[in-house]
Protein: Nucleotide-binding universal stress UspA family protein
Amino acid sequence: MYSKILVPMALTHGVSSQTLEIAKALCSAGGEIIALHVHEELHGTVSAYLDKKAVKAGFDSAKAVLVEKASIVPEATTVMVSGHSGRTVLEYAKKHDIDCIVMGSHKPGLRDYFLGSTAGHVVRHAHCAVHVHRHPD
Structure:
């Protein structure tokens, strides 16, 4: 059993409910579950073409989806951060003394073998246990 579990959530993938339930099963009594979404930072000059209100609206919309998806585990805390997905998950886990990461993963394609998926990056570099739930697609 784990006392502090991080559940990184890609809001467009359909595994959030399963990864949260897995985290709940792995969490010790009195433990903590943190549902985390990393809102990808805008790349390059794209930010020059977007109004700050539009960027904030996107962030707020994603936060609302995160809260809704995490509501199936009422004891979970929701956290929204900006950054690069894999790197930010690892930094958050280390900074907050996470002892287990539970995350979903899609079936890897050829591109993932060369570039690496977020789950693959986290598995290779995490300082703690990582449980990966493979999406059936």
Q: What stands out?
A: The two ends are 29 Å apart (CA to CA). Residues 2-128 form a domain with the Rossmann fold fold (CATH 3.40.50.620). The CA atoms of residues 17 and 115 lie 27 Å apart. Strands lie at 2-8, 27-40, 77-83, 100-105, 129-134.
